[in-house]
Design brief:
Number of helices of chain A: 12
CATH class of chain A: Mainly Alpha
Strand content of chain A: under 5%
Bound molecules: adenosine-5'-triphosphate, magnesium ion
Distance between the termini of chain B: 45 Å
Number of strands of chain A: 0
CATH topology of chain A: MetI-like fold
Shape of chain B: elongated
Low-confidence stretches of chain A: 1-5
Oligomer: heterodimer
Number of domains of chain A: 1
Number of helices of chain B: 8
Radius of gyration of chain B: 24 Å
Largest sheet of chain A: none
Largest sheet of chain B: 6 strands, mixed
Structural class of chain A: mainly alpha
Distance between the termini of chain A: 39 Å
Chain lengths: 280, 343
């Protein structure tokens, strides 16, 4: 009994610590950022004042009044949706093969598939950008979709492959002997059991695509104007303007929060997110 | 319900044969157990019957039909795994009904058949649960129900009881045996536990190194094994060197024995079970007790004799309990079984 009580105590202590850490790394910067976005330009916010001299919504108004913003949001939503769907479609067979089928040079293929995770986006962007320019894909939405998919696909494959790998072969064999052909095994056994990986991979792909800057800029700019591109332009040009940057942060954060809210609301989504992230 | 014929079945993994030239005929309604040490190829045989592993050569025929080239879903076999392999995202009823759904049996009929088979394995009350909410024994019963509901031609079980504790193992093996008899389903059962094999089988197939060593009824394989491997793998035994002459066998310590069947003259090996040997204290006896292990139901002695050492088991309070170092006279059974192999 005493042991149990003490363990309970240390658990409470641990979670208090974790929440404190979370607050320091996430909530405090967010709160400060939010204040920055509301600083009144006439009075400003200078050290050592703990709070700004005055509050105003002028930065928000200016950012949201930009007519290009709505267009940017729509472009971004469209591109991210297509990128996510494309990644998911390509990832399923690739992930299944990596997870369950024996073939030669598997390690080499695995490395090749995952390489874009390691190579900086700028390098990929410039390399692909030159290629796309020759192919006539530069400055086009399809070009941006393709180059972003190069970035999201490894994530998707990695997470879905891990989820499929975790499905015991016996389950698949059992389904087969019970009369299910390969397609029905895929739909009725593999897909539902790999679903958490799909949710996690899909959400991450969407967010990654939505926030992507380098590759989109290199391949799409100035014709394709995603929200991220527009917001970067809004940062201040030569030097960063803090109130503007703060507004940008919050606009970019909105889809992320929405996506993760969606993730927790989907059936088994919360576990899916945790499980999927664990597999990164 | 159907018979099963394996002919010349072989399968290699890399350079090594996992299964080599297996011939076996299981008759309709028969329970055959594949028994052998770990890695001898039992699972591989079973997987070739199910269609999960393709043989390099040889054929599998079910009910007179060659199914060697058919995928698992078209063979009508029921497979039960050591790991249970229940679908975690389906309820008990969902798991059991899966095979019916795959065969297009739906609605009322499907529900009735699921209910009937759940009743058979005494799990009706748990139909709505998920596998993770069941004990190991219950999960294995669900797996059995799932394999039986489609009325397979052949029921295949690969070490179905290995993950259960000893008591449950005995209970469930009797249930499986009774169910198999009642449904008269042809059954191929894999285990490396010799007691389980004898309890479940009409016939036992002893395997070693990918080959069939010997096939027979449990009582025949136990009492009259042809191979030394069989004698030693099925229970414990004493392999005693003797010299045969005109039908009489003489041991190294001079005891004369009678052979069960004719044995050619010369040196020979006999297999004598520990429980068939009697020892009695005798100061002038040829043997000496070197080791005593009290096992509850029985006592095991290691008895040293000139040129050999015997394992002896006595049971019951009447048999007495002798100390280490006691000199004993040894009484072998009147008629002993000679192995085919010679020293
Ligand atoms: N997929 C595989 N790839 C490579 N080797 C394999 C494969 N399956 C089986 N083997 C090998 O084939 C041999 C027979 O294996 P099998 O699983 O049939 O043995 P078993 O009799 O079922 O053993 P156990 O009692 O341990 O289950 C073993 O040496 C094993 O290592
Ligand atoms: Mg095995």
């Amino acid at each position: 009994m005493i042991g149990a009580g003490r363990r309970g105590g240390s658990r409470a202590f641990l979670s208090a610590g974790l929440f404190a850490a979370l607050a320091l790394t996430l909530l405090v910067p967010l709160a400060v950022g939010f204040l920055w976005s509301l600083v009144d330009p006439r009075s400003g916010w200078f050290a050592p004042a703990l709070l700004p001299g005055g509050l105003a919504t002028v930065h928000w108004e200016r950012a949201l009044a930009s007519p290009r913003l709505v267009g940017g949001v729509l472009t971004s939503l469209f591109i991210s949706t297509v990128v996510t769907a494309l990644s998911a479609a390509i990832a399923l067979p690739t992930a299944y093969a990596l997870a369950k089928l024996p073939f030669r040079f598997k390690r080499a293929v695995e490395m090749f598939v995952l390489a874009p995770l390691i190579v900086p986006g700028l390098v990929v962007g410039i390399g692909v950008g030159i290629l796309f320019f020759r192919l006539g894909l530069a400055h086009s939405v399809p070009g941006v979709i393709l180059v972003q998919t190069v970035g999201t696909l490894p994530l998707m494959i990695r997470i879905v492959a891990a989820a499929i790998e975790a499905i015991p072969d016996d389950l698949i064999h059992a389904a087969r002997t019970l009369g299910a052909g390969p397609v029905r095994v895929g739909l009725l056994v593999v897909a539902p059991l790999a679903w958490p990986g799909y949710v996690a991979g899909g959400l991450l792909s969407f967010v990654t695509s939505f926030e992507e800057f380098e590759k989109t800029f290199i391949v799409g700019s100035p014709v394709v104007q995603t929200l991220t591109i527009l917001l970067w332009q809004n940062l201040g040009g030569q030097a960063i303007v803090f109130p503007n940057a703060a507004v940008v942060t919050f606009i970019l954060l909105t889809p992320v929060l929405l996506i993760f809210a969606l993730g927790s609301w989907l059936p088994r989504g919360e576990g899916a997110l945790a499980a999927g992230m664990g597999k990164l | 319900m159907a018979d099963l014929v394996l002919s010349g079945l072989s399968r290699r993994f890399g350079a090594d044969f996992a299964v080599s030239g297996v011939d076996l005929a299981v008759t309709d309604g028969e329970a055959v157990v594949l028994l052998g040490p770990s890695g001898c190829g039992k699972t591989t045989v079973m997987r070739m019957v199910a269609g999960i592993v393709t043989p390099d050569s040889g054929t599998v025929a079910i009910a007179g039909r060659d199914v060697t080239d058919l995928p698992p879903e078209r063979r009508n076999v029921g497979l039960v795994f050591q790991s249970y392999a229940l679908f975690p995202h389906m309820t008990v009823a969902g798991n059991v009904g899966f095979g019916l759904k795959m065969r297009g049996v739906r609605g009322r009929e499907a529900a009735d058949r699921v209910a009937r088979v759940l009743d058979l394995v005494e799990l009706s009350a748990l139909a709505g649960r998920h596998p993770r909410q069941l004990s190991g024994g219950q999960q294995q019963r669900v797996a059995l129900a799932r394999a039986l509901v489609t009325e397979p031609d052949i029921l295949l079980l690969d070490e179905p009881l290995s993950n259960l504790d000893a008591l449950l193992r005995e209970q469930l093996r009797e249930e499986i045996r009774a169910l198999q008899r009642r449904l008269a389903v042809t059954m191929l059962y894999v285990t490396h536990d010799q007691k389980e094999a004898m309890a479940v089988a009409d016939r036992v197939v002893v395997m070693s190194d990918g080959r069939i060593k010997e096939v027979g009824r449990p009582v025949d394989l136990y009492r009259r094994p042809r191979e030394r491997f069989t004698a030693e793998f099925l229970g414990q035994t004493n392999i005693v060197a003797v010299v045969a002459s005109a039908g009489r066998l003489t041991t190294a310590w001079g005891e004369r024995l009678e052979a069960e069947a004719a044995v050619g003259d010369g040196p020979a090996l006999v297999s004598v079970r520990p429980e068939d040997i009697v020892v009695v204290p005798d100061p002038d006896g040829p043997g000496e007790i070197r080791h005593v292990a009290f096992l509850g139901a029985e006592v095991e002695y290691h008895v040293a004799l000139p040129g050999t050492r015997l394992r002896v088991r006595r049971s019951g309070i009447a048999a007495g309990l002798f100390a280490e170092g006691t000199r004993v006279a040894v009484a072998m059974p009147e008629r002993v079984h000679a192995l085919e192999a010679r020293p």
